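# nightly structure sweep
# worker-07 picked up a monomer target from the shared queue
# config: single-sequence mode, recycle default, output format = structure tokens
# input follows
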Amino acid sequence: MADPSSTPKSRLPKFSSQAFFENIKVLAIALVIALLVRTFVAEPRYIPSGSMQPTMLINDRFIAEKVSYRFRSPQFGEIVIFSAPEALQKMANYGSDQVLIKRIIGLPGDRISVRGGQVSVNGKVLTESYIAEPPSYDCPGTMPKDTDFCRMGVTGESFEVPSGNYFVMGDNRNNSADSHVWGFLPRQNVIGRAWLRFFPLDRFGGLS
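# output follows
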């Protein structure tokens, strides 16, 4: 008979409460870091509508970075993401957490005019190769319409962007609920700028 003391013992892994809690700690730290990065540095986003065509198409995936605007103000031509301003919330029943994406056309103090399919900033007509088609509306407009900023919110040949605000427009000018509809975008609503498209891969690259 074999000596019981010589029989190999089962080599089952021993449960270690210390190892378990170490793993939990590492996971918690990773989640906190991911949350901090998403909140303060960058986050992935996608395009749900055609308002930015042809620059950005429906279901495009991109990275919105949030660091730049901590050190400088948004600039003309940059594509920004922002939370729905109060005027849009009231107009279209949007929530304050609804995020939109448009291009900055007017900076604080700029004078804007949309006439005959052309957008002018400070008296200079913009050359806009990135738009889907010229705007079919004027701003300021002449025909009253209760829900249209360009017809009810401003008068005269042009209008000035107030301090602390921006005038933003979608590249798909005639299919975009942008500043020409709901008015100025407050600086505090700006979340970050569209930086890099990562999907689809055949259109991978920086955004401007």
